[in-house]
Amino acid sequence: MADNVPQDLKYTQEHEWARVSGKIVVVGITHHAQQTLGDIVYVELPKLGAQVTAGDSFGTVESVKAVSELFAPISGKVVKVNDELVASPEDINTEPYGDGWLVEIELSDAGQLSNLLDAAAYEKLIKE
Amino acid sequence: MTRRTPLNEAHRKLGARMVDFAGWDMPVQYSSLTAEHEAVRTAVGLFDVSHMGEIEFTGPGALETVNRLISNDLARCQDGQAVYAGLLNDLGGFVDDVVAYRFSPERILICVNSSNREKDFAWMNARAEGVKPVDKSDDYAQIAIQGPKAVGLVQRLTKSDLSQVGTYRFTEGEVAGVKAIISRTGYTGEDGFELYCAAGDAVKLWDALLEAGQPDGVKACGLGARDSLRTEMKYALYGNDIDDAHTALEAGLGWIVKLDKAGGFIGKDALAAQKAAGVPRKLVGFELTDKGIPRHGYSVLKNGERVGEVTSGTMGPTVKKSIGMAYVPANLAAEGSTFDVDIRGRAVPAIVVKTPFLKKS
Predict the structure, then answer these.
(1) In this structure, how many other beta carbons lie within 10 angstroms of the beta carbon of residue B169?
(2) B46 domain residue, yes or no
(3) Taking CB atoms and an 8 Å cutoff, what residues of chain B touch A60?
């Protein structure tokens, strides 16, 4: 379903999404990822101010059955963390592109954005 | 080759997510694991457990033959009664955990784990002194109906008086016009039945239960919910919590070991010796006291040293806590004992608690 892959976002091969506005990038996991994981019960996110590196793990998300690493789409500093997820990790299931966002990262290198997939490429990836 | 139960198509029609489970193509969940879990705790859920194996002993001496193979005592049971038991190796570890059904002293049916079916059959066949086992697994399908509304649902579909079928008792009758063994057993901690029917009747029975259960809010439930439900009850899972390397006493299953039964059983001498010497490690139930989820294979730490291993763990959907089971040294097994669980490099504190985790009101 096309509306489960918003056209205005960028994506990683590991099923994170990135909403870019200027130097700030909001990061979450995709509808497809949350559906595959099932009911999410616990999220481990980096601390405010932490430096993350593109392609490296910056946290974990756990469903009842599985643990999944979260991979940073881009490098930069964590400037906002979705603390609400501690109390309601299920937001990732219900609103993966809304209240279920994970962190905001301040970009250190805008050039890295070109390494991300656009919506069409991501749709193709999850259909494979 | 992947095996399929007679209900495989039915699961796909319901939109189940299918996974490989010990060589079987099985539904892990249909909608949401927690919704399915809650349906079983508050209403009723259906499970396809046709992948389980059924091995039969028929003929004079069947009871005596089986009773030497299993750790529990079927001779003390009445006809129409079932027991949970271990098939134990010479060291008192598990070849498998099973449910043995006594139809009569000359007909015993043993339900075994799907992953152990061939192993169990060969093991029994080699050790059966007297009656030889027959693998009837392909003849049977099995559907579990579990939850507070399970008894009412099944009763509406059968003329058998289920009020006469107590826990771990069974009867033979018809459910929705399908000939079935109606067994008041299960693996969820809720009341309910496990129905054994001919493989060819499974779809008819499954559909009838789903339809008749609509007013009860019946849900088809997958292996995911089955695992979280049994974990909240601290029911052991072969391959996780019990195996050939841990004895029945270490697993806390001394109650299915009848050391004094006439004729003895395989593994008895080792268990008697261990009981006399003291059990060195025990399977305990614990809760995490900080955030995280314990999982199979994680290390148990005491003062930074690895002293044991988590065998099962989950976020309990009903108890709403991170719970698990672990083998720990006997000196850490008492209720209130504390240790850490190594969750991907983080030492998360845990406390041994009384089980089952789910306390029934």
Answers:
(1) 18
(2) yes
(3) 344
